[in-house]
Amino acid sequence: MHIGLIGLGKMGFNMRERLRKGGVGVTGYDRNSEVTDVASIDRLLDKVPAPRIIWVMVPAGSTASAVITELGEKLEPGDLVIDGGNSRFTEDQKHSELLTAKGIRFVDCGVSGGVWGLQNGYGLMVGGEAADIERALPIFDALRPDGERADSFVHVGGVGAGHYAKMVHNGIEYGLMQAYAEGYQLLASKDIITEVFGTFRAWQKGTVVRSWLLDLMVRALEEDPGLQNIDDYVEDSGEGRWTVEEAIANAIPAPAITASLFARFASREDSSPAMKMVSALRHQFGGHAIRPAE
Ligand SMILES: NC(=O)c1ccc[n+]([C@@H]2O[C@H](COP(=O)([O-])OP(=O)(O)OC[C@H]3O[C@@H](n4cnc5c(N)ncnc54)[C@H](O)[C@@H]3O)[C@@H](O)[C@H]2O)c1
Ligand SMILES: O=C(O)[C@H](O)[C@@H](O)[C@H](O)[C@H](O)COP(=O)(O)O
């Protein structure tokens, strides 16, 4: 099998290598000339034998839509596009309709594992028709960790289901990280605790809260004890917001994930107008002292 891979950044670059190691031929295209195999999407399509499989691994949103739209104009009936980026599941239906109108197949694939996927393999959750997924199984098998397929790969449902599962996965990721981070602050702030690092390290084996995220927390503290070199500003790239929007749309209580998303928003404020107002109101109704602005 020989496929095309568009987007060779933090994810796609390593995925190309893992696919090649796993016996899947890859021609990669990236607009960054330092990493690309070919100079354009047209050249990529020349190199990939028909019926083609093209994996898209570019930033979600307008970039992924532009690339998939261009593929819709250039691919042939029977070709298959797999969107492996973190696209919102609602985008998948649009992309699928656009491609299906031209006889081109579409599969969405949530990919997890970050920059560690090259060595550890990637967790995969796919949406689409069974025949399309069957056709791409050698790709999924090369990307996922060794062992039982069902331990790291799932056909979740129809188009959009793979990205829906990845969205929920990332919502959980937000909540887990927030809980570990709050535990870190509690331990690091208490005078009777002399071993913060040692405590997390000792939680890695045997405890109920052992996990890969905990292992990464220990790694982060090894690299930068006290996290001196890291600002307390946390970005988000959409998955947490979409999870909360889904919780609201379906009236599903998701307080932990929602709080963890809002904690990221709070991390970006130098000063909080809302908390100034709380202080002002306490003063108004109760005469409670206000701490003056510096
Ligand atoms: N980084 C992660 O941990 C991670 C994990 C799973 C999924 N994802 C998702 O995978 C996708 C890629 O993520 P990433 O971390 O590799 O991003 P990245 O920014 O590191 O890489 C994106 C690559 O796409 C290229 N690119 C952008 N526009 C292009 C275009 N029009 N044509 C060709 N190449 C183009 C860029 O040059 C860059 O090399 C995103 O949707 C992201 O959300 C990321
Ligand atoms: O499962 C994974 O490999 C990660 O979740 C991955 O998808 C990525 O690191 C997130 O996109 C970060 O998301 P935020 O920018 O929203 O934290």
Automatic annotation (TrEMBL):
SMART domains, A to Z: 6PGD
Which parts of the sequence belong to the 6-phosphogluconate dehydrogenase C-terminal domain?
Answer: 162-289
Coiled-coil residues: none
List the Pfam families hit by this protein, alphabetically.
6PGD, NAD_binding_2
Q: Which InterPro entries match?
A: 6-PGluconate_DH-like_C_sf, 6DGDH_YqeC, 6PGD_dom2, 6PGDH_C, 6PGDH_NADP-bd, 6PGdom_BS, NAD(P)-bd_dom_sf, Pgluconate_DH
Task: Show the GO MF annotations.
Answer: oxidoreductase activity
Q: Which UniProt keywords apply?
A: Gluconate utilization, Oxidoreductase
Q: Which domain of life is it from?
A: Bacteria
Query: What's the name of the protein?
Result: Phosphogluconate dehydrogenase (NAD(+)-dependent, decarboxylating)
Recorded source organism is: Arthrobacter methylotrophus
Q: Which gene encodes it?
A: gnd
